[in-house]
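User: My collaborator and I are trying to settle a disagreement about how two of our proteins should look. Neither of us wants to argue from intuition anymore, so we agreed to look at predicted structures for both before our next call. Could you fold the first one, then the second, and keep them clearly separated?

Assistant: That sounds like a sensible way to settle it. I'll keep them separate. The first protein:
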Amino acid sequence: MASHSPAPVHKEPRGLKVVSESDRHPKARTVQVARPKREETSFLPATVQGLGITLKHFAKNLFSRRENSDIETINYPEETIPYPERNRGLHRLMQRDDGNVRCVACMCCPTVCPANCITIIPAETDNAGVEKFPAVFEIDELRCVVCGLCVEACPCDAIRMDTGTHAMPVEERGHAIETKEKMLARGTPSIAVQGGEGPDWRDE
């Protein structure tokens, strides 16, 4: 005795009402579309609802106390969020024992910089141990992407980004340019030995 499989059950599409089905093909159906009401298509109720939420948060920020509130907004710059330990911060130029900049104007940092924000103009120096020094060393902090490649490329430990200080907002673009004097004032004498620990350091 042959068994007959049950007739397939067709589910109604979500949001649609089936009015009739075709006798020739059960999948051919006439549906009624549930169209939204006129008040649901108007933007005015949604606008009023959005303004209500905005006013609610405004009153909460204005009258509630910070210690008893779940508000995420902080009163910057009076209040700041601690930066993570690996935050690089503003650049600084390291100093030699005599207080001069350790940079020898080798042009490694402006060459590797992907934002082209470093400008160095080399000049001759009277120091017998140094061939050149940067007469001009400027960094445009508005163009800097804080990648740290300049620190990695420097062979003299002349530039670092470990200040942990964020660049301050400025009103004019020229005020965002860090000069050699500014970065040198943040620097400290470096005890790094240029060239490493010697030619036989791998054998130790």
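The second protein, kept apart from the first:
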Amino acid sequence: MGCEANVTKGRQLVFLIRNAADTAYEIAGGVKVRGYNFDNPVEDTTSSSTPGDYSESEWTGYSQAALTISGLADQRTGITDPVTGLNIVGSARLLAVATTGDRCGKFKLLNVDTDGFIEGFFNVTTFSKSGDTPGLVGFDAALQSKEAIVVSGDV
């Protein structure tokens, strides 16, 4: 009797990362807990033609997206996930992005039940992993983006 890795089994959400060649998404892990926040404040400015009055600025401050995720990653790599058909790279690729270069990569939080997703380029601001289960590790990550991101469907 053999066992096959399936980090998405029983998981509605998966966390994907683009491979180093930027040709395909790969699975970083199954997501247990996730949160996201979109911040787009509007600033008021004093109008030079009417001192003391305020009007909405054409420049609306900044826009930022933040993701926080917690989940399980398979330590074995090169295995194809039977649910999505994607290669599992586990936390190895996420660790590489989090600790080298500009700490930026293209990520996707995918709801495999609804096909809803959040996708875009994010900076990895925090990353940790731990665990005692053979073959699996827990991971936590926080990501931020000021790029244009895509949100589609129910995530």
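Some points you might bring to the call about the second protein. The mean pLDDT is 80. Helices lie at 90-99.
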